[in-house]
Amino acid sequence: MSATAPTLHPPLPLGVCVFPEIGPNRARTTSYPHYIHEVLQHAGVFYTGVELNKLDLVLDSLKILVTVGETDLHEKVKHKLADWVKAGGAWISVAGVCGMDEVLGASLQKPDMWSWGGAAFKSLGEGYLVKNETEHPAVAHVKRPLHTFGGVTVISRGAKVLARVDDKHGRQTDRPGVLEHVAGKGRAILIAADITGTLVRIQQGICVTRDGVPAPDGSGPVNDSVLKADDGCVLDWELDRDSVPGMSNFRCYLEPAADVWREVFLRSIFHAAREQNVALPILWLYPRKLPALAHMSHDTDGNEPEKAHRLVALLDEAKIKATWCVILPGYEPSLISKIKSAGHELATHYDAMTEGTIFSEKEFDEQRRELVAMFGEKPVTNKNHYTRWEGDVEFFEWCAARGIQMDQSKGASKTGEAGYNFGTCHLYFPVTFRGRKIDVLEMCLPTQDLHVFAPVELFEALLATVKRHHGIFHQLYHPAHTSKPEVGESLLMVARRAREEGMEWWTAKQINQWERARRDVKVESFDGTTLSLKSSETLTDATILVLNGKIDMEAWGFGFEAFVQTIEAGKPTRMQVQR
Prior knowledge:
Layout: E1 14-18, H1 36-43, E2 48-49, H2 55-58, E3 64-68, H3 75-86, E4 90-94, H4 101-104, E5 106-108, E6 126-131, E7 146-149, E8 154-156, E9 160-167, E10 176-183, E11 186-191, H5 195-204, E12 242-244, E13 247-252, H6 257-275, E14 280-283, E15 293-299, H7 305-318, E16 323-326, H8 333-341, E17 345-348, H9 361-375, E18 381-382, H10 394-401, E19 406-407, E20 441-442, H11 458-468, E21 472-476, H12 479-482, H13 485-500, E22 504-505, H14 508-520, E23 522-526, E24 530-534, E25 539-547, E26 553-555, E27 558-567, E28 573-576
Parallel strand pairs: 1-2, 1-3, 3-4, 4-11, 15-16, 15-21, 15-22, 16-17, 18-19, 19-20
Antiparallel strand pairs: 5-8, 6-7, 6-9, 9-10, 10-11, 12-13, 14-25, 23-24, 24-28, 25-27, 26-27
Helix pairs in contact: 5-6, 7-13
């Protein structure tokens, strides 16, 4: 994933420099370092991409610098960076000290033992971030130990340790995880953990070639001789799950670990900007200052027409437009037409579970072609039946090659996995092992039919999580279950409660279109007072945030000045921001 933000003249106040990756068979502090661009682009934070060989030339025009990785900086760059921080700049370093011990207030820790082919530094390995400074803005949102994979072990040399990293069994250590150091008029924040590698590992999981390890309490028997997305999950049954409020005997993944990590990084930037009095422009995730979104999908397993008709009526009562993931043989033309005319989205439900089907690109293509003919249009969304999955990212590649722009297969197939077993309630683009972005958005599936798959008490816990992390609440209901009175009533309750919390219900197609259009918006100019944006697609009622002291809206724990304005395709959108 190598795409960076375009360079403006003068550049935006935030600059991002991903250090060049070293060659193979050498130890490194980060994996997928270019994934930092995915984090910022999804968050809508505007920034300037900076190449290492030009860092000293553009540094004076930046107010905040983000670097990713460890590298040997040239002495000239070291002196320039040190002087820049001391004069009032803010530096956020991800998993790298770069010989700048004095500025960062920390130094690398040497390995404990000698080894052939070993590293010159000690890795954090697998562990858990635990905050020390409970009210510090960068980590105040961390509610529980936060699973991490990789990074660099450092020793504080005067920096304040905001959070430590305990070992993978939850045993306490004194290893710093997030540090802050004031140097002259500026400051430096060192995030020792490998944020990018951690995000990719949690969100995408590991390659699925065999059954996963089941939950010791019997709630997640994933060793069922069926290969599924959740067989690749890397979160821990014991250390990453919490009890659902009011149900001490029901545990699930209530905290989206990947999203919490994203916020550690974003909040570090916002904290540095606020402390150094730097105005930052951001294109908010949703229109109209919405705090989060809601989405409902339906898997048509069984394809029973009478139940589908009842669900259409139920959705009309709930005032929801949903995404119908249709499994073959599907419905008769009149019912398909009824679903479409009601404003719902038709999507594929790839079946590699039913006897006679297999998990293969050929099978996927044949089923998709049949469904395209049934729908009379090309679908943009897919969910795999029973969350079937094999291999690493091959299935994403199959989707991308056929115009499927969004997938919903990463999720829970067993009750004990309910919640965020892939660590996120946000959209993300996956990457290959070599870091290449795949053009398919993933929207994970946290739970299925309430009263059937999970108790209804789970809903409020997940809803609160989504709102707190500004994500998308995704609820799946099967037509086969919604004819049961208690399940149908829960659907109406879910629809009402999400609206009460300020969320709008969108189809996956709408969500996909909005997210892609958002990422197309570019800054033409920004001088701290006037912001000019441009896009090739129209975004109606877009929300533009500026971190500048005035507060109209709270997000990620910070107050922003907020503007709701339509960004018209091909036309500059200008606005005055107050200071």
